[in-house]
Amino acid sequence: MASAPRAVNRAIPLGLYVHLPWCVRKCPYCDFNSHAPRTTPPFEAYVDALLVDLDADRRDCGAALDGRRIETIFFGGGTPSLFPDAAIARLLEGLAARLDIAAGAEITLEANPGTVEHGRFAAYRAAGVNRLSLGVQSFADTQLEALGRIHRHGEILIAMDEARSAGFANINLDLMYALPTQTLAAALDDIERALALQPTHISHYQLTLEPGTPFARTPPPLPDSDAAWRMQEACQARLAAAGYVQYEVSAYALPNRQAQHNCIYWTFGDYLGLGAGAHAKLSFGEGRILRRAKRKNPALYMAHAASAKRLESSAMITRAELPFEFMLNALRLNEGVAAASFAARTGLTLDDIAASLTRARREGLLAEDADILRATPLGLRYLNDLLQRFLP
């Protein structure tokens, strides 16, 4: 007689990503699913659609959700801080009525300094949001203009004051480097200005030209790869000197202030995805892992929130794809992950990837440690080359 299916591993953390797709203006480097509407977005109707979408997900994926607790919630965009605080409060109430949300769960909301209204951060905090992520990108007004941002340096300072006054003790600043015509000194100046604000977390990543964006069609004058690498090394050193630990390729945190939601992604945990263009990954046991994405167009997503038509795609990850899917996330972490987690999260064994592991270690891209899967400094610099070793 066939054995009963193994239950989903409840030790796999589960997060929730909610996509709020509207922004004031689309930045020329942005390839996210964001939309600049001509009229006021239908905030309340969209919240309704999100909750209907969640009800449909619970019907579709109950076997992967039953008995599991939501550890983190992340409101991304677009610009979530465009949403009225009452809409965010109603959404959080609706989520809590439908899901088991852990006490003290990290609940992050992305915000643009140019959309901060007096008192709104305090209302978000009262609704249950306990972490902010501010899209600063740069402190130089000339760079902010070149990047198409709607805010300027002074509005960053106002936003930080509003956040602190509202009681937020956990704040991330998003910064970019290798910006148009940027010098090493200018990149370091951005770091200094960020440090002066004493955030708990800094995301520091290189500007890249994404296909289909205005910057890709008409590239601005960017620093070359050697100059970008010098910026990265110098900024890493300055952040380290200030007590910020680099725990992922582009993430730096004060002790015990790592972004818990992003850590779910990087350790190949599970996450629900609600909203236009949102992605999800859910484990069903025995190595059966579902990836799905919602329709990108907000209007079509809202129109079909209750039906299968809300889905852009939905498919199980094949056995051959699992090693790359796992490594794509785990090897971004500076400390790597326990080797045993590969089997726990994928249903495969290390023997299944023995040849790839041996090659990556021989090339000096992967650490010589049987208990940890960790990229070497060389492997982190040439991460794409390392990841290719695990392609099907």
CATH classification class of the largest domain: Alpha Beta
Number of domains: 2
- In the predicted model, the low-confidence regions spanning at least 5 consecutive residues are 1-6
Helices and strands, in N-to-C order? EHHEHEHEHHEHEHHEEHEEEHEHEHHEHH
Beta content comes to 15-25%
How would a crystallographer describe the biggest sheet? 9 strands, mixed
- Would you identify the CATH architecture of the largest domain? Alpha-Beta Horseshoe
What does this protein structure show overall?
Helices cover 37% and strands 20% of the residues. The chain is globular, with a radius of gyration of 21 Å. The strands form 3 sheets. A 9-stranded mixed β-sheet has the order 7-8-6-5-4-3-2-1-9, sandwiched between helices. It folds into 2 domains: 14-265, pyruvate-formate lyase- activating enzyme; 322-388, Orthogonal Bundle (Arc Repressor Mutant, subunit A). It contains 16 helices and 14 strands. The longest helix is centred in the first third of the chain and has 18 residues, at 43-60. Residues 1-6 have low confidence and may be disordered. It is an alpha/beta fold.
Describe how the helices and strands are arranged.
Elements: E1 14-20, H1 43-60, H2 62-65, E2 70-77, H3 85-98, E3 101-111, H4 120-127, E4 131-137, H5 141-146, H6 153-165, E5 171-177, H7 184-196, E6 201-206, H8 214-217, H9 225-241, E7 245-248, E8 251-253, H10 260-266, E9 270-274, E10 279-283, E11 289-294, H11 298-303, E12 311-316, H12 322-330, E13 337-338, H13 340-346, H14 354-362, E14 372-373, H15 377-381, H16 383-388
Parallel strand pairs: 1-2, 1-9, 2-3, 3-4, 4-5, 5-6
Antiparallel strand pairs: 6-8, 7-8, 10-11, 11-12, 13-14
